[in-house]
Specification:
The structure is a single chain. This protein is of the alpha+beta class. It has a single domain (72-401), classed as Beta-lactamase (3-Layer(aba) Sandwich), CATH 3.40.710. It is 37% helix and 17% strand. The protein has helices at 3-17, 117-120, 122-126, 129-132, 137-143, 151-163, 181-189, 202-215, 228-241, 264-275, 282-297, 299-302, 308-315, 350-363, 369-374, 376-379; strands at 55-56, 59-60, 72-78, 81-94, 99-103, 109-111, 250-252, 258-263, 321-325, 329-334, 339-345, 382-384, 390-396. Strands 3, 4, 5, 9, 10, 11, 12 and 13 form an eight-stranded antiparallel beta sheet that branches. The protein has a three-stranded antiparallel beta sheet with strand order 6-8-7. α5 crosses α8 (202-215) and α9 (228-241) packs across α10 (264-275). The longest helix has 16 residues, at 282-297. Residues 1-71 are annotated as: Disordered. It comes from Hypericibacter adhaerens.
């Protein structure tokens, strides 16, 4: 054996002698233990993990375990082919928690993102903050908004902040360019300052500041989970959804506030209780009614020009409250039916969530056949090329009778 081979053999033997078992003990015997009798040990039995939805101490355990594949409910055509497909889950629930219709996995936790803003706005009214500062329907609608940053939005938010003695710098949502392209281009052309007023969540954050002012709480850090403003939001959402959301998966939303994981079914229940608040306390029922009335009366403040929810609410006045969120989440509050709708597109595509909401509303007969034809470009949007020619459609697949 060559010197190099002997050296390699010694190195390999050294590694084997020091190899460890998972428990941390050597897998080979040392010289001193060579004569001792090996003891047999029972294999360790791993502790069973709780299943999603299991109970621990009276609270539901929310899990992010890999879910089964959701059905392909939305497709995108181009010419004679289907070019893309979206998997989507949908829950339609009444105020008693009865499941009216569903597609896909509605028990897996998702983040409701901005789609749950109507629920997050409840403390603004319940604390008396809205009335104390003389807020009307436009401000309540803005508290639920993911707005375009158009002048009709930012002018009102400026006046609102002045009313409560706050500055734009008090907003902790961060800044981004207006979502409305003409407004964005005008801001850039004018060399205007890019501030948090243009953030699509500046109305919601103005609502948080209003509540803090009313309650005599610090305004700095109002986005933190531990701040009383966010604790009130968590309690209100827990009561409406029937879950202890203090134990839910938690993250940070795009605008800086806590975002709480909850199943689509529970989210839809919270929305349904806003649609039919008869079994809620008088104060909460009144808050739900005012939020619904405000959003449906001022739909363009909730989104803005060209936005799916705003356009549909403005066209079909008083039928429903629609609110979208990032990552393919959409919420519907249907007061005439007493139902809540919660939608999540697996891939986070907003186009899939919007088209799924349109199809759900048609299935529930809240949009007639004649209106479907009239609103075809909104409900089943065309795919346009750079020359603005229609080359395809975004539509329901019909899978699972959807």
């Amino acid at each position: 054996m060559s010197a190099m081979a002997r050296k390699a053999a010694r190195k390999t033997a050294g590694r084997s002698a020091t190899a460890k078992r998972p428990g941390g003990k050597s897998s080979v015997k040392t010289k001193g233990a060579a004569k001792s009798k090996a003891k047999t040990r029972k294999p360790a039995v791993p502790k069973a993990k709780p299943k999603p939805g299991a109970k621990r101490g009276g609270a539901q355990i929310l899990s992010d375990q890999k879910p089964p594949a959701n059905p392909t409910l939305i497709e995108v055509t181009r010419g004679e082919m289907v070019e893309s497909r979206h998997r989507v889950a949908v829950a339609v629930v009444d105020a008693q928690g009865k499941l009216v219709e569903s597609w896909g996995d509605i028990e897996r936790p998702i983040y409701g993102r901005s789609a749950v803003k109507p629920l997050q706005a409840l403390p603004l009214l319940e604390t008396g903050a809205a009335d104390n500062f003389g807020l009307g329907e436009p401000e309540i609608a803005l508290a639920c908004a993911s707005h375009n940053g158009e002048p009709l939005h930012t002018d009102r938010v400026r006046r609102w902040l002045a009313r409560i003695g706050c500055e734009i710098s008090d907003l902790e949502c961060g800044a981004h360019l207006p979502l409305h392209e003409p407004t964005m281009l005008q801001l850039i052309a004018n060399g205007g300052d890019l501030t948090a007023i243009y953030n699509n969540c500046s109305g919601k954050h103005s609502g948080f500041l209003t509540t803090a002012r009313h309650e005599g709480e610090p305004t700095r850090g109002y986005v933190r989970y531990e701040h009383p403003v966010q604790q009130r939001v968590t309690r209100a959402m827990s009561e409406m959804t029937g879950l202890d959301l203090s134990r839910a998966p938690r993250g940070i939303d795009g605008c800086g506030i806590p975002v709480l994981g909850l199943p689509l079914r529970a989210m839809a229940l919270g929305l349904a209780r806003m649609a039919d608040p008869r079994k809620l306390s008088a104060d909460r029922a009144n808050a739900c009614k005012r939020i619904l009335q405000s959003v449906m009366a001022w739909p363009m403040l909730v989104g803005g020009t060209g936005r799916f929810g705003s356009t549909l609410m403005a066209t079909l006045k008083g039928r429903f409250l629609l609110k979208g969120g990032a990552e393919g989440v959409y919420a519907g509050i249907l007061p005439s039916l007493g139902l809540g709708v919660a939608i999540k597109a697996d891939d986070g595509a907003g186009r899939a969530a919007e088209t799924a909401m349109a199809q759900t509303l048609r299935r529930l007969k809240l949009i007639s056949a004649a209106e479907t034809k009239m609103l075809a470009d909104l409900l089943t949007p065309p795919v346009l090329n750079r020359a603005l020619l229609e080359v395809g459609r975004i539509r329901s697949t019909g899978e699972g009778r959807f």
